[in-house]
Every structure is written in C-alpha cells, then in structure tokens.
Amino acid sequence: MAFITIKLAYKRIIRKPQKIVGIILGIALGVALLTGVMVGVASLKAGFTNSFLHTLGERDAFFSYSPYGEIETTDQDFIEALNLTAFQGIEAATARLRVDVSVFNEEQGTLQPTVLLNGMNPNETGFLPFYDDYDKSNELVLNETTLSADHIFMGAGLAEEMKLEKDDLITISFGFGNATVFGDFTIQEIYNEDKGKGREDSGFSLALPLSRLQDMINTASEAIGESPTVVTNKVNRVYLNIEDEFEEDKEFMEELFNQIRAKIAVITALPLEVIEYTWEFTMIRVFIIDIIDQMMTMMSTMLNAFGALIIAAGLLVIVNIQLMALEERESQTGIMRAIGAKRRTIISSTLIESVFLGVIASIVGLLGGIVYGWFLGWVFAYSFDFASEDIPLIVTQSTLIWSFVFGFIIAVVSGIYPSLRASRINIVDVLRGITRIHPKKMTKKSIYFGSILSIGAIIWLTMSGFPPLWEGKEAFRNIDDVEKMYIPILFTVLGPAIMASYFWSKRISLNVGALFMIGWPLFIIIWALEWVEEGDGGMWLISYCIVSMIIGNVLLMGINLEIFASIGEKVVGVVPRLRATGMVAFRQMSSNKTRSTLTFALFATILSMNIFMAAFNASMRFGLDDAMEEISGNTDIIVSITSPVPRAVQTANLIQEDADFNNRIDLVRPLTVTHGLSYLITDPTNSSWRPNPLNETEAENIVSNYNVAIANDTFWDDEDDWFFKYGLEHDKYIEFEDGVKYQDDEIVTPEDQLLWKALSENRHVNITNPNNASETISVPIIITTRLMTFDNFQVKYLKEVGDLVYLEDTDGNLKPYLIAGFAIDNPLINAFQLASQHDGSGGGPFGPATFFVSAEEKENLVVFSFGLGELDNYLLIGSPFDLNSEGNDILSQDIQTWANSNTSEYRILYGMHSFYVIVVYDIYEEFLEGQYRFFNFLQTFTSLGFVVGILGLMVVSLRAVSERKREIGMLRSIGYKKLDVILAVIFELIALSIIGWLIGMFNGLVMAQRLIDVSFGDLADFVIPWYPHILIYSVITFGASFIAAIIPGWLASRIPPSEALRYQG
Amino acid sequence: MSKSEYILECNNVHKVYGEGTQNEVHALQGINLKIKRGEMVAIQGPSGCGKSTLLNVIGGLTPISEGEIFINGIDIRDFTDAEMATFRNVNLSYIFQLFNLFPFLTSLQNVILPLLIQQLPRSIAESRSISLLREMGLGGQIIRRPGELSGGQQQRVAIARALVSNPQILLGDEPTGDLDTTTSGDILRLFRRINTEREQTMVLVTHSDWIASKCDRIIRIQDGVIVEDGLNGGK
Description:
The complex is a heterodimer of chains A (1065) and B (235). Chain A is of the alpha+beta class.
C-alpha cells in the first residue's frame, strides 16, 4: 500500500508538472521570507558590528582617572609606569588627552559647540597609523615635525559640516577651571576617517600632537594659578588594544581591569576601594556588541512578527491552490476510492506529494530568501546612510536548516486540510459530477471543537488571575492584564458560537462569532486602552487585535458573501450589456465561498498590515505638529552659549538693544546647565552610602545627568503669565512646609506652573531624616526626568515622586533633594539627549537624565562650580511664530550671525563668539526622521506581502480560470462573447479585491487611528496617507487583480468553445 | 425549392483537427446536408465518426476547415467571433448529455441567462423563463440549484434554457445519454411535443436507435462522411 501511495503521489506530480508550479511558488515564497529575515538580520548584525567596531579600530577598552567625567587628568609618566603591555592580553596601550572644545570660523560665522580635540601620541605603537587624507590618497602622519606651529588636523565630518577647507582659520575654545582657553589655528590637513583607527567621535574631531595640547593646558593652568610643575604631561584616557582572543571576553576583561586597579593601588599607595571608586574602566567593544545584540533581537522580533502575517497570507495562497488541485482531481479521487483506496491512502498520498513539493520549494525559497536578505540589507543601508558594502551577506548553517524545516512544515500544514477534504468526498456524487449544496448546519465536529475552545477558555480565565470583568474599568487598568484576558475571553464567545452552529443556524452562529472577533478588539482599542493606567506590555495586545480583526472581518465577509455578491450584481446590472456577465461573475464568486474568501483574505491581510503601518507612520511623522507645539511649551529656539556670560546683560542686549529682533522675539530667559553625576541612593543609612560606580549591584545608583539651574523668572513672571509651559508628571501629593498641592497628570496645568515656581523659590519639604528616623529635616525639591533603566526591554523606574536623590555639595557631602515631579518630554531635555548622542556622553538608551534645581541651590553644588560661577550658558527663546514656521529658522540664523559677528554689540561687549542656536522644531524633526526611516524600512519589509499577494493571485487566477474551461465553453455555447468571458473573470477578481481592500482599509486605519489617539490624544492629527501610500497600495491591489484576471481571461476566451466543452481537468 | 426553405444547409463541409501536425484528424470529410424548418433529425454513427463535430460546426462552436454552412440562408463563415456569439444566442441552442448547467446558478438563473445576454429587461426575461420552467413541470424547482435536482429535472432545466430564446435550431448532443430509460422516454416525449407545438427544428446526436426511431429523419455518419440519410418511416 505504501508503494501505491508513493506511486500515486509521484504520478500526480509528473502528469502535469505545470500545475504544481503554483504550489511550489507559494511554499517558496514563505520559505524565502523566513530565510530573507534570517539572512537580513544576520547580515545587518554583521554590518552593524563591522561598522560600529570599525569606529573603534583597535581601541577595545579604555580607562581614565575621571570620577566626574573627563575633566580630571593624570600624569603620562604614571601611565607609562603601569607598564600596561606587560599584562597578559594587552597588545598595546596608548594615552591621549581629550578635551571638549567649541570650534568657530569667523568667515562663515559658524560654530560647533561640541567637538573632541584629541591630543595624540605620535607613536601609538600597536595601533593603526593615523588616518588618510581627505581624498584617501595619502596616509597622514601626525607629529611635532609634520604639523606646523599654530596648525591643526581636522576630521572630514566636521570640515563638511562647517564648510571648511585646508588653510582655513578656526578658533577653538574650552573651559578650564573658571577660565576659558582660546586658540587660533590654521587647518593643515583634513583627515578622512574611513580607514585607520576607526570613525571615532563621529568625525567631529580635531587632532594635535599630544605635547602641543599638553602645552596649551599647562599655559591655561598657569593662567589660573595652578603650578605647571605639578603635572606637566597630562593625559586623561588610556586606550587598550586587547589581543583578538580576549577582546570580546567579558570575564577576562573584568579580571584584567582588576589587575590594573591592583597595580594602580600599589603605585599610588592608596586602598583598592579608593582606586575602584576613582578610576573608570570601560570594555567598549563588549559594550557595543551587547548593544548590537539587543538591537538585532528587537529588530528580528519585529521583522518576524510582520513576517508571520505575510507568511499567513502566503499560506492562504497555498491552501487556495491546494484546494483547486483537490477539486480538479475530485473525479480521480472518486475513482481511487471506488476501486478500494482507503481514506488513509488518499491522505498520505496527498501529504507525500506536499512534502516532495515542499523540498523543491525550500530550495527555490532558500535562493529567493538569500536575494531578499541581500535586498533588505540594501534597503537598510539606503535608509540609514550606510555604505551598502559595509553590510555583508551572511547565510548561516542554521538559516539553511531552518529553510528546509520551514518548507516542510508549510507543505504539510497546507496539505492537511485539502487532503482531509479529499478523503471525505462522496464517491457517488463525485463520479456523477454532482455538486451538493452546503448544509445549513455544521457537522458534529463543531460541537467538539466549540467545546474544547469553551472549556479551554474557562480554564484559562480561572488560571490567569487577571481582575474579573465585573470590576468594570478597573479590570482594564493594567495593560498586562488586558493582554492576558484577550484570548481567553475571545474563546469564551467563539466556543459557544461554534457549538451553536450545529444546533442552530450555521450562518447566524458564525456571524455572531465573526462579529465578536471584530467587536472585541474594537472595544479594546476604542475604550479599554483609554482606561489603562499601568503596565509595560501592549505589543502583543496590539498584534492580537490586528490579527483577530483581520480574521473576524474575513469571516464576516466570507459568511455573507452572497449579500456582497447581490450588491455587486445589482450595481453591474445597471448596464444592460453587463447584466448576464455580472450575474455569472458574482454568483460564481459567492458559490465558491472558501476559495473566494481565501482570495480576498490574502489582500485583507496584506492591506491591513501595510495600511496600518503607513497611517501610523505618517501620523507619527506629520501629525504631531500640535503635540510638538504643546510639548515645546513656547520655546521655539534654544541657544547654547559655549562661553558662559552674565545673564542680565546678554538678555538685555538681545531683546532691547537690537531693533531687528523687536517683532520676532517675545521673550528670552536664561538657564545654567552643566553635566555631572548624581546618586540615587535607596538606603542612605547604610554605612557604605557613597556608592561604587564600578560595583554592578550599585551601578544604577549613579545617573549621568544634565543639571539645570533655573532662575526665578524662567518659567513664569510676576503677573502669573507663564512664559515657558514645561509640563510635569506628579501623581503624588507633595506637602510643602506650608501646604499641600498638585495631583494632576495633564500635560500642562496651573499646578505645573506652581510646582516650577516652588522650585525656583527653593521651597523645602519636611521629611524624616533617612539617617535618623526620630529627626525631621527640611529638604529642597528637585524636578527630574523620569529616572529609568531597561532590563530586557522592560522599563524599570528607579525613583518615584517623593523619593530622594543626592547631589554632591561643595563641601564634599551628598545633599538630599526630594523629587517633586518628573519633567515631561520637552525641547530642552530633547536637546540634551541629542547633544549626548553627538558628543557620546551617553547615559543609557534615552540619553542622560535631566535634573532641575533652583538658582539658589546651584551656588552650593559641585557640578555647577566648574567654569560657571554666576554665569549662564543657555537661553530659551520664544518667538511669535508657530513652532514649525520658517520664521524660526530665519530668526535662529539671524541670532547666530548677530551674536557671532565681529561687529555686533554682543561681540564688542564680550569679545567672543559662542552662540550655538538650535531651532526646537529641528530637534523633533531629527527624532521623527530617524523613527520615520525605521518605520519606512519596516514598511519596505511588509510591502513584500504585495509580492506574495500578486504572485499568489496570478497563480490562483490562472489555475482557477483554466479549471473553468468547461464552464467558459458552456457560456460561449449560449452566446457569450470573448469579451464577456474576460469581463466575468475581471468582475469576480476585482470584486474580491474590493472586499479585501475594504477590510484592509478598515482594519489598518481604525487600528492606526486608535493607537495614535491613545498615545497622543487631541494633540496628534491622524494623517491618512492617501498619497502616496494608499494610492500605491490601491493601484497595486486593483492593478494586480486586473492583470491576474485579464491574462487568464484572455487566454481562456481564445479556446474554441467546442474544445472548452470537452475539458475534463 | 428556394434556399430559404431549408433552415440549415451544409455544403462540402470538412473539419480537420490538428491540421499540419502528426496528430491530424480529418473529422468531417465533405458533409452535404440540408434540413428543413421544423424537422426533427437524428444523427447516428459509431464513436469518433464525427457526429459531435458536425453538431459543433453547425452551432459555430468550432470553425470549419472547408465548405460552407448556411443557417436560415446566412453564411455563418463570414461572422466574426462576436457576431457568431450573438447569432448563436438568438438562433441556436444546445442541450448536452451532461446538461452543462451552471452549478452556482439556480434553475431560473440558468434559464434566464440567454435572455440577459440579449439584454432583455430582467422582469420580462424572468416572467418568460418562469412560465417556461412551469411548462417543463419545474414550477417548484425555480430557486433550486442543479445539485439539488434529479438528472431528469436538470435536463428539463437545460431544455428550458435552450428554448427560452426561441432558437431557430435546437442542437442536442446525446441529450438522454446520462438518463435512465424512463426519464429518457419523458425527455423524448417532451422533445416531440416541442417539435410539434412550436415547429422547432431539432438536430439530435444519439447512439440510441430507439430515440432515432422517434425522429423524422435519420442521418448516419461513418468516418466523417454521411453514409445514409433517410426519412424515418417508423416514428
């Protein structure tokens, strides 16, 4: 029997090989997609790794004596005394002096506030040589001899940004102590960072021989009264080139760092714990690899999630084709059964055929997947300005294995249903060519299936422990609970509906089930999400909603296809010429329910996904202007002043003395901003309360942050007319020494204003002394950004309103501050985050935290003591223009030119050039553009669904029409013209694509609109991307249907009717 | 006798399948045939003799290789495909052995289809079709689909569809071939009634001598050539 089974399968395949092309193509598309994702992710990962690690060159790790950032320096001789290359695993070590500087060009009037000036050892032995020149034609040499006096090397990135060339003049400046150091240089060479030591510092760098920079520092030291004899050869970072064998070995590096610390302790004769506290070690290569791993895990999760939907669409094509093959072979199956073949034989022969086709399809799919993976890499490179050659094509062994396993699984899964149907045919009916009408009730199996669903759902409901629904809105408070309840509740209704289809009307029961599959997700996204107040999940919930809306809509339309067919018939029938054609097309469509449903389900799935992505992305990119206007809190322009100035004079200069700005500036307010570290101590009563930044368990107690001191009238004025409306999140009562206030979480409220005012007035709160519970102490308030970290992509909040944070005061003590509120996303914070990305100061995935303290507190804090004194270094500017108005761009240019121009009042007064002007809208645009590009990349990926759809539709249509040859002959025999035959096929497919399009539009737009609304409320405009996205998708959908109809329709119409009538399949 | 007295006239009709290929088959080899209006003609012959091919060339379902065919005095060779389709819709009707009803349409929809092709208003087309179905004894089966009908009922629906457009000639290809003897007898009596009452010209291809014996005239074909053509005295 086994032989017969295999023989039967074999004969089926070789009899008409052209007929199996569709099945192979369908499976191959699924395999290609999976392989493409695997190849794409592996290639992108390799590309990222290459690209980011290339920026490192051979600098695998670094350390510095810098507990407070990079201001502290140490002696080069000390570093040499460590004899680092004697440690096992260190191939080479080099010390540099790195200083953050501002670069100004007088001629252009351009300023770059954050540029790294590298003092480099001319003989960085064991590292790659210095960079190529700009044309990459010559290798540059940097030493005292090759670099002329008063000359400097400049990175190509910086030169391009500032539009500078060789021999141009620049002025650099940096703060040192309380002084600002200036230096004028001529650009001797522009170095290209593509080769050599890696693209360090984003190309925004300058280079000098180490000794020259040391001389500059020493001169500055003398100027502020520091003796140059103390330390003459300062360095502040030591780079280590670790042997390849160990450079990615975390444990080895930890051990190596410990050994170096121990040696430092010996040389300095200090306790090891002091060394651990004062020396900072970073295994940068390992860190980057970890980040890339996390990024790629996230990306592959997203690609796989969307890929699963596309594969689902592909499965619809395959099952459709399999069903056609089954119908076509019904008579053969009937004959087989008539001569004694068992059901098992029919099932196994169909499955063997599927598996055989699966193997062939896997090979085809694997090749397609490799091409697709390459394409994904190319699209990514194009979207994010990567060089495409940086992304290699990686096909791993597991990719190969999975491709075949997946091909096998698709083949078997898609073969099971048709084979079961084939085994259950009514032999007599099939042999006599009788088509039975579907019964109005379901078979007994629906009771079993419905019972399993219902019982499973009840067990699930009782086990999962989310709040009962009768608690009303409370039950939906936590999004994780909503996520957990989604499927069991869906099954609770679906199970009984399926059971009812046996006892009651099949149509009504299934309609109830389908409507619930649409209604339940709509309820979630329209109402329940509005009630959600806590929880971190949501991604799965959104996926469940999309999938069940697609299935529900498809089922609803499928069950009621006759209604749609009648409407279509009536619409087309308005034209007498088309009446007959319309009747045949639409009746054909509604009678062949399963196949028709599978066909429009294909488009429904693809369009739902793509339209959702397009609408969501467009709204996120172009619909947030109102939200940005609100979040910006009236700040249109931010000025960073690289050389701090006394506030009163500069603001007066800006607003009052220059008539040019009279009508264009509403207000200007100063801020003092500095960067440093704060402590988030959980238990300050612990004797070792000063945390060790190198101890992993306490690492999260240290936050790299921007400290912002606000002056008394920054966020309001005396008449309570609030200038800069910066919102707060403050969901707990904060009781001040004189009262209780605030519990409101709207974006900007009068309570926010009062809280900002309380901060500026340096009001205190009475709390129990953490060190002595019997004592009450009065502490000032602080406003921070939401202090959080990420643990496996889950947000973890470190502090809540009412908790304490500690800042070091000028006496070396940690001073407690009570968190009164969290500053909501605003342009100032975003500007810092952006700056931290540019200058690499980092501070976590979302940049460093921002702490706001009063101007009064500023006076006593260490972080404000360097170089700032009574000075301000930031300005917030409000203009009468809309945030996205071009007026702000022009104004910002005018301010920069005015401030940095040689003849301006400001320059005459201060003799310096230090205004770096940021247009707030540009900050958002940069954020949104990055996000937009990423979504566009995902959209390119999801658009592959259309390729699956079009190819699938073509195959299905070709097969379907060729199977209908006999019917076409019948039509021709009663007077159908060729054109009528073509029109009938077109009407049918276009009608199906209209259904798919309607479902896709409904699902995609509703989901996107709700998500945007839930996320941004009234602040966001929902943007429907009619052009180009929806137009393109519609053209593809209807165009593909038209072509998929007209080609087979035309071919069929050419067959002589007499021949068509003889067709037996 | 003038040309128009014959509703169908075939002169030296040849039909070659796969012309110029190795599989060339000369299905009709110079058929000369004239059929009068209202005549009920049986075409008989062994399998593969060219009976069905003759029916198909008469109905314009396949082009002839040589010769000429006049229906109602009109040379159908001159027609374009679209003209032939229209001509077929108005003047010719088919009844097939396997009924060839559209399984996805109801009895009424199957019958109405030729009239809709003629762009008749739906109400007129429906009333004419319903009365014809009633005449065929199918008043209760109007909204049923072929799958819900017996073989005899299906063939009656097929006959109703063939008659609904009042064709000049009704062509039947083994119209009772898939039916039992009793039902075949019923269908044949129906044919005879239609032929008599409507003076409907009928050309029936059949293997059955009994059915042939009930026709006005029997034509026997062998190897694509008419070998016998005579009036049936025994009907």
